[in-house]
Predict the structure of Transposase.
Amino acid sequence: MTFQFRLYPTPEQEKQLGITLDLCRKLYNSAKEQRETDYKQEGKTITYAMQQNELPALKQQFPAYKEVHSQVLQDCLRRLDDAYQRFFRGEAGYPHYKSADRYVSFTYPQPGAVLRTFAKAGSIYLPKIGVVKMNAHRPFDQAGVTQINVKRYADHWMVNISVKAPDVEAGAAVESTVGIDVGLSSFAALSDETKVDNPRYLRKAEKRLKREQRRLSRKQRGSRNRQKARRKVAKTHQKVARQRKDFLHKQSCRIVRDHDLIAVEQLKVRNMVRNRRLAKSISDAGWRQFITYLSYKAKRQGKRLVQVPAHGTSQTCVCGADVPKTLAIRIHNCKVCGLIQDRDVVSAKIILQRALKIAA
Ligand SMILES: [Zn+2]
């Protein structure tokens, strides 16, 4: 389970965050370069362990690296190693050098060891950065934190805090429930106030597919070129479908594993696709396919999937008040009970409410 909170660093801290990210990226790129040259020149395969052992020497040579936490540096090398492993297994292309706009986050992979304190509520201690103000709008189990990831966006910083799910005793009838709403900005929003993003590789592949389809439509009917273009489109299409399926399987597995009752909207996909702004997120995400996966996985594991009428879930509040909003309004703001939250998360909560009523 991952919690995402906004960070409010001081100008000094923000500078340090930027420096850290930049050093991480440079380390990643030079570690990649080292792997390549050593392989080309000596046929030597460099491993993660070998590169990690060189970190102390790196710090001696480039003192700036002393200002980056060692776990964070190790994580850069780990990312590179993962990228190579995925390539060797045939799951991904050859690792690229990372430009500044592609390397946007750094990670403390074992915060237990460094997470001495969360300073007073509303801030987080990031080793080598300091105590940074954080908009922690919801409590989480600090003892269960497994990873802290700091991410740069266009004009702000966020922190993703991964927390291990509480242990469930075997046979204990713990009723865990969750509501899921189709996200507009993300793939889905959950009633536990987390969000699931559309993976970047998928968005990219889909963009490529669209480009190829446009190209195909310009080719002359019956021509050789058209045949060629059609084959290309079919191939990309297949690849995108495979990647999307894989993503949907992973997400549905996780949700069914973690919850006993899962609530979703009955989707009238045809109606929604007519609305052009919604069309992209709905069809792209393969929402219908997702519900199908949820449904059979839930059945197999003896869990419940409840589909509720979709009507008005984005126009009311959990307190029952009407909170009308257009698509452009991203934040739910209820004047009656004071709830201020991401609109999709509120919808997910209402979907869960309705499902619990039906289930009862
Ligand atoms: Zn309300």
Notes: The first strand starts at residue 2 and ends at 8. Residues 317, 319, 321, 334, 336-337, 339 surround zinc ion (CB under 6 Å).
